[in-house]
Amino acid sequence: MSMKIISKNPSKNFEVLAEFEETTEAEVLQKIKTARAAAAGWRAPGLNKRLQILGGLCEKFAANSAQIANLISLEMGKPIVQSEVEISRAVAFMRWDLENAERHLAPEITFESDREIHEVSYIPKGVVLSITPFNFPFSQFVWQTFQNLVVGNVVVNKPDPNTPQVYKLLEKIIGDSDLPKGVQQFVYGGAEIGSFLAEQDINMICFTGNTKTGQYLYKVAASKMIPILMELGGSAPGIICADADIDGIIEKVFQNRFSNCGQVCHALKRLIVHESKFGEVVEKLTKIAGKQVIGDALDRNTTLGPLVNQKQHKVLNEQFDDAIKKGAKAIFGVKRPQELSGGFFPPTFLTNISRDMRVWKEEVFGPVLPIVSFKSLSEAIEFANDTIYGLGAYIYTASKDTFKDISEKLESCMVSHNGLIYLSAFNPFGGVKASGHGRVRGKWGLRELCNIKVDACEK
Length: 459
Prior knowledge:
The chain is of the alpha/beta class. The protein has helices spanning 25-43, 47-63, 65-76, 80-104, 137-151, 164-175, 191-198, 211-224, 246-258, 278-290, 310-325, 358-361, 377-384, 400-409, 442-448; strands spanning 4-9, 15-21, 108-112, 116-124, 127-132, 154-159, 184-186, 204-208, 228-231, 236-240, 268-274, 329-332, 348-351, 368-374, 389-390, 392-396, 414-417, 432-433, 436-437, 450-458.
């Protein structure tokens, strides 16, 4: 028996917006069959033809950006200005792929003599299952699906059930494009239908989400002997050194934690401040928090919207309560307006942190930031690495040498100096430890989705 996929508005106390039928198991089987039939036809015309078709699709997404952004804000609570930025950046990422794929996927000669030539080529894997989360619905779709389509794979995407209207719109836009039937399809549903889908005749899994689900899918992929690309949780440290220019970095520190209501996998989630700067940092962060506008995600004045659903709100409250019970001190820069009901939580700073608190040990997916002080850089690095995760990290220092020294010792795969943005179309994105493995974006992401083939040929 199929379940209902319910679209809700977290800005309006989770009022129901729409209901959709979950994809049935029979429909899943048909979609896999259709994808398998479409695979050869999508690969055969070659990269240049695919890029031509995908270029047209990219421009259709751009033309519908306002409608996509509106639905993202409506369904998951991202402030509309931030939703618009998500769309524009994702379109820019697609355009980078279109402009650079031919260069990065070109065959490479690894050896040549008068008798023989060895050549490496990048071959599509086939049918790829893509499972995407709620926090960046369009960006995550682009990151996983678009590069797969570029290299010649066909994709069956199961989006997060919190944003069905977003994906119904993307499905319509794709249906109106020149993309051949079966090359990209959607499956709607929860964990059960996702599990059923993963068991089918696929060649690779791409997953972005929580670590627990990633561990399950890892086992499924192992049993099928297929590759899996996973971008999981994160608990990124931010280290503010004694020589940091606080006025120059403090706005960036705030945004790196509280953008998208803190629902960002690689967001700054634990702030580690030199004892000489601790009071100043807390005071200035609190002042910035006091200027935030908590409100409906579709209001253009809103800077902090609601959490996506009741579950996220409940977990965050439990993590906060655990910290207070164990002695943490809470500092609120602004209160939630009384007239608001829904998934709202004010930007909150926690001091007097102990490392047995859930806000330190777990990923906090909401607007709460624990802050600790340190005396020596070795202590700061030890704090930073005290996590099961290894995705992003942030270092604030006036010294390039200090940045390099700390970065080398951090168990993170992406490190920002003084707020520089590492999330770019030309950079790889991914983590180590419980943050997953494999990379999306850039040439590394394109090649990750291919089988690497060697031809050793006589001349």
